[in-house]
Specification:
By secondary structure, the protein is α+β, with helices and mostly antiparallel strands. Helix content is 46%, strand content 17%. It contains 15 helices and twelve strands. The protein is globular and about 70 Å long. This is ATP phosphoribosyltransferase regulatory subunit.
Amino acid sequence: MIRTADRQRAAALLQGFLDAGATLVETEILQPAGTLLDLYGEDIRARAFTTHDPLTGEAMLRPDFTVPVVQAHMNNGADVARYCYAGEVFRRQEVDEGRPREYLQVGFEVFDGTDPAAADAEVFDLIATALAPWSTHPVTGDLGILTAAVDGLTTSEPRRAALRRHIWRPSRFRRLMDRFTGKAAVPATRTALLAQVAETSVEALIDAAGPAVGLRSADEIAARVRALTEDAALPPVSHTEAEVIGMLLALDCPMAQAISPLRDMAVDLPSLIPAIDRLEARAAALARRGHTPDTLPFAPARGRTAMEYYDGFTFTFTAPGRLDLAPLATGGRYDALTSVLGRGRGVPAVGGVIRPGLLGDLA
C-alpha cells in the first residue's frame, strides 16, 4: 500500500520539476504489451504484471514511465521538450524480499539534442538538488563507452550485434566474449553439428531429422546453421581488443580521472574517441553546475543491470549505509529508444526518476 506521506512527498518533488520548466504528462496505467515485448523480448514478462484485454489484446500494468512518455513525445512530433510525471509503477518480485510490487515514481525527462552534455548535467543536477535533504550518494556510468568499444571490435557484425544485445546481461556478455576470443571451448553439440554440415548439406540434415518440432521453419533453421558455420570460420577477437574490453569493465574511479586511461585505451580501440569526448564534455558541464568530477564516482559499465534502454550516461543515487534499500533515484541517456519508438526519427533524450517511498523510509 502506498502511504499518504509518500504521495505528499511525490507531489512536492513533482512541483520542483514543474518549477524547473517541465510540462506535466500523464500516461495510462494499463500499457499495450506489444511495444514492451518488441523492445525487451520475453524477458519483460518476468518483471511485469500482464493481463489480456478482449479488445486491445495483451496488456501490462505500467512497469515504468519512460517508454510511454517517449511514445507520446514522438507521436506529437515535438523536438525539444521537458516533461515531468508522478504515479504508480508495478513490478513483479520473484522472491519475497520485502520489496513492493507497487510503488511511486516521480520523473523528469529532457528531449533536446542541442547540447547533450548540458542536458545530462541538467537532469543529474535537478535530481541531486531534489535529493539534497537526504544526503544521498551519487555514482555515474556511461554505457555509450562500452557500446563504442564493441562497435570497434575487429570481428563480424553478427558478433558485434550479439555483444551489443547482451551489454545489459553481464554474465551472458562475458560468456560471449570468452567464446569470441577462443577462451571458452565450443560446445560439443555444436562441434558435432558443424562436422555433419561439412559432410552434407543443411537441407539434407533437416530432412533426415524427421517432422519439425517447435516454431522455427526449415528455412530459419538452415539460416541459423549457416550463421554458425560462418562464425566458426572467423578468427578470434584479438587479445589486445579483448583486453581493452576487460579494462573498461574493471575501470572504477572518479569521473575526471577516467579520461586519461580511456584515452590510452583508445590507442588500441579508436572507436572509443567520440564517446570519451562526450564524457569529457559532460564532466565540464557538471562542473559548471557545481558538481565535482574529480570526486564523482564513475565506472563505464555502471548501469548495465538497470533498464535496457540506457545507452549512454547513467547515474544512481543511494542512501549511505542502507544496503537494504534499492536505489533512491536512477537515470540516464536513451537516444536509441527514441529512434525505435519514433520509427527511425530519433531525438536525443535523457531522464531520471526518484522513488518517494524509499525517501520516506529514511525519514
